[in-house]
Amino acid sequence: MLCDFLGRSGIPVVWTVHDCWLFTGHCYHYSSAGCYRWKTGCYSCPLKTSFPASWLLDRSDRNYELKKKSLTGMKNLHLVAASEWMKKEMSESFLSGVPCTVIHNGIDLDVFKPSNNEQTKGKYGINTPHYVIAVASIWLKEKGFDDLMRLAGILDEDNTLVMVGRMTKKQEKVLPGNVIHIPRTSDATALAELYSGAVAFLNPTWQDNYPTVNLEAIACGTPVITYRTGGSPESVTDKTGFIVEQGDIDGIAKIINDIIGNNSYLYGLNCREYALAHFDKEKCFRKYIDLYESLAAR
Question: How high is the mean pLDDT of the chain?
Fold first, then answer.
């Protein structure tokens, strides 16, 4: 009903797209399932019981057609993609004819900044000379939980893996001794301190658009190691981190050792400099305002 009203009214609409739900018949992301039916028309959804779960009926074909009709009927629709990857994906969907602008997410650089709090390691019981960190709101297989368990098995003994985010009781029971679990925290300053003290931020995600955690880590002076997944590599340069192929656990371990062996201080300087130039939330807001003004002036 909303799309129909906006289509008839001619009101300019800016729709920011954070995941793939807008152009699929059901799922919010399809990469881990390797499903690309959304390019021509969804049916028999392999992710039917995944969020948003439907345990009985598969209405992916009906939902797909409803979205296609509703969204393509909005003549003054302008999409904003949070990553170049997302823009490319939408260009292969029924949204290919809709204008799209890429505006990367921004963060608060006054909160996420390098910190030298020497008490951070003691506060969380980190007893090794070094630690690496990984962060997720909820730890799922798609976020790299299984991969991090494999990595923990080959980390050097002077390194600890810190995992921030919600876990199930089953997941907590399989954590190796060199893994410290910190439940999800709403304290951004504490999170920034954890980022700052880490050798590297690990993001072995198997599906993502433009993860904010990468930006936060880089802003704190910590290099990112991520899979070549979706838009995750778009915030990483040769001076702010490393990109490995999906599942390359040995590659991640080698990079961690290389960072420790080299002058990690230089990584910190490069990361912070890049963050100041590209991740400032005020610059992000300005791009939105410029877009609104250009559409309103038509």
Answer: 94
